TrEMBL record:
<feature type="binding site">
    <location>
        <begin position="10"/>
        <end position="15"/>
    </location>
    <ligand>
        <name>FAD</name>
    </ligand>
</feature>
<dbReference type="InterPro" id="IPR040131">
    <property type="entry name" value="MnmG_N"/>
</dbReference>
<dbReference type="GO" id="GO:0005829">
    <property type="term" value="C:cytosol"/>
</dbReference>
<keyword id="KW-0808">Transferase</keyword>
<dbReference type="InterPro" id="IPR004417">
    <property type="entry name" value="TrmFO"/>
</dbReference>
<keyword id="KW-0274">FAD</keyword>
<dbReference type="GO" id="GO:0002098">
    <property type="term" value="P:tRNA wobble uridine modification"/>
</dbReference>
<comment type="similarity">
    <text>Belongs to the MnmG family. TrmFO subfamily.</text>
</comment>
<keyword id="KW-0521">NADP</keyword>
<keyword id="KW-0285">Flavoprotein</keyword>
<protein>
    <recommendedName>
        <fullName>Methylenetetrahydrofolate--tRNA-(uracil-5-)-methyltransferase TrmFO</fullName>
        <ecNumber>2.1.1.74</ecNumber>
    </recommendedName>
</protein>
<feature type="domain" description="MnmG N-terminal">
    <location>
        <begin position="6"/>
        <end position="371"/>
    </location>
</feature>
<dbReference type="InterPro" id="IPR020595">
    <property type="entry name" value="MnmG-rel_CS"/>
</dbReference>
<comment type="function">
    <text>NAD-binding protein involved in the addition of a carboxymethylaminomethyl (cmnm) group at the wobble position (U34) of certain tRNAs, forming tRNA-cmnm(5)s(2)U34.</text>
</comment>
<dbReference type="GO" id="GO:0030488">
    <property type="term" value="P:tRNA methylation"/>
</dbReference>
<keyword id="KW-0520">NAD</keyword>
<dbReference type="InterPro" id="IPR036188">
    <property type="entry name" value="FAD/NAD-bd_sf"/>
</dbReference>
Length: 453
């Protein structure tokens, strides 16, 4: 092994893509993958890039959908994960669904056949003091490594569950009903005193909401998923089951708030939304983590006054998921601030999904190449899907409430001069994707891109 050896821990979606990008640029790569010696409750094989659950890469529409755009950007960058997905694509309408076994086999065989890639079956359980490393150990990072990361970063900076509250696009919130105010007007600045958006409910609306919550379809935990579950992150429907008033004394309490539209009417309950990104395009529903099925969530949440026409950047959920508080721990190049020779990539950095994880592997691989070969690599433009994601995890997101995120247009800086609201959506998304494609191509052509395969 030379000092041009890049060690990648975890041969999942992110690790495999990072290895491919680095190997194509000429680095020696060692992938440390603990499977099949050490298993997880979700993986079933010892192959690289195993899909643990659904076989979908979601929408492939690169003009109107942010994940479709991410596919496009990855294809342009010669992604191995996308090559395999395209090769083993199954009919699925506008979605990119793949035949999971040959998909994983192809990634596995392609990487193992490269003369400069070695795959070792070992569990890495500490953070190294030297060398060049990418940790891409995913949502099921082994407990020993999880403990080592916590020892480095502080226990509170590594979570083992995501308790995701739904996130709403701010432009779809009805501001004639909702008002901005922090509880008891707390805060030193006007911005802080108006940091929350409040959706008021009458008693009848609250009772109907509780009935709908109790009746809604829920998903169950998978076996082995619940170890260490819950610490102040009960799903709202579980709170409602404990008593009809529980939510009104918890996340929906109406105290310290005055309805700016109807100052004389005291709301019976209030749903609060808090800004979720610096741009102010996304708001999360405070304390609204849930195991309701996605269809049921949309239906139930649109009963909330002010959210009748809301569209969701992501819906809520609670899952086994190891992820770090990346906005405080990683720099813009995905390096651990406290050990810059160690990068993180994939779902453990707080992105969510096969595609997003592979995308962050692609970037981490290229960033490692630039560091190790001392080549220039400019920052990825935040106007691209890649750039929007990496910017979000490395500082754009609110660190205090950081939860894993799918790629979505709410992460992109707005294109000026376009119509807001639902009507202008098609034009707006097209403008986002056109801008992203031009900027991504510009970045790729400037970057010391590896030669095409
Ligand atoms: C139960 C479950 C269901 C999911 N369903 C979906 C879904 O339907 N769609 C979707 O898009 N996403 C889903 N996800 C999220 C999915 O895991 C990620 O999208 C994707 O796999 C993350 O890629 P990754 O490379 O970050 O992690 P992974 O693909 O999990 O790869 C991480 C790799 O690191 C290895 N590893 C862990 N610790 C160590 C260690 N200490 N030393 C060496 N190797 C180690 C693991 O064995 C694994 O191979 C699901 C996750 C879980 C847990």
């Amino acid at each position: 092994m030379t000092d041009k050896t890049l060690h990648i821990v975890g041969g999942g979606m992110a690790g495999s893509e990072a290895a491919w990008q680095a190997a194509r640029a000429g680095l020696d790569v060692v992938i440390h993958e603990m499977r099949p010696k050490v298993g997880t409750f979700a993986h079933q094989t010892g192959k690289l890039a195993e899909m643990v659950c659904s076989n979908s890469f979601r929408s492939d529409d690169d003009e109107q959908n942010a994940v479709g755009l991410l596919h496009w950007e990855m294809r342009q960058a010669g992604s191995l994960i996308m090559q395999s997905a395209d090769r083993y694509r199954l009919p699925a309408g506008g979605a990119l669904a793949v035949d999971r076994e040959p998909f994983s086999q192809f990634v596995n065989d392609t990487l193992r056949a490269l003369p400069n890639v070695t795959v070792t079956e070992d569990e890495v359980s500490s953070l190294p003091d030297s060398g060049h490393w990418i940790f891409a150990t995913g949502p099921l990072t082994s407990p020993a490594l999880g403990a080592a990361i916590q020892a480095e970063t502080g226990a509170e900076r590594l979570a083992f569950f995501d308790a995701i509250a739904p996130i709403v696009y701010s432009e779809t919130i009805d501001m004639d009903v909702v008002w901005a105010q922090s509880r008891y007007d707390k805060g030193d600045t006007e911005d802080e005193r108006r940091a929350y958006l409040n959706c008021p409910m009458t008693r009848d609306q609250y009772e109907a909401f509780i009935d709908a919550l109790l009746a809604a379809d829920k998903t169950e935990f998978r076996e082995g998923e619940t170890a260490g579950y819950f610490d102040g992150c009960l799903p709202i429907e579980v709170m409602a089951e404990r008593g009809r008033e529980t939510l009104r004394h918890g996340p929906m309490k109406p105290v310290g708030l005055t309805n700016a539209h109807k100052p004389d009417e005291k709301p019976y309950a209030v749903v609060q939304l808090r800004r979720d990104n610096a741009l102010g395009t996304l708001y999360n529903m405070v304390g609204f983590q849930t195991k309701m099925k996605y269809g049921a969530q949309t239906e139930v949440f649109r009963m909330i006054p002010g959210l009748e026409n809301a569209t969701f950047a992501r819906l809520g959920g609670i899952h086994r998921n190891t992820f770090m508080n990346s906005p405080t721990l990683l720099d813009g190049r995905m390096r651990l601030r406290s050990r810059p020779h160690v990068r993180f990539a994939g779902q453990v950095t707080g992105v969510e999904g096969y595609v997003e994880s592979a995308a962050m592997g692609l970037l981490a691989g290229r960033m490692a190449v630039a560091d190790m070969l001392c080549t220039d690599l400019s920052d990825v433009p935040v106007t691209t899907a890649m750039g929007a994601l990496v910017h979000h995890i490395s500082g754009g997101a609110e660190a205090k409430t950081f939860q894993p995120m799918n790629v979505n247009f709410g992460l992109f800086p707005p294109v000026e001069g376009l119509k807001a609201g639902r009507r202008g959506r098609r034009d707006r998304y097209k403008a986002y994707t056109d801008r992203a494609k031009a900027d991504w191509q510009g970045w790729l052509s400037k970057a010391e891109a590896p030669a095409p395969a």
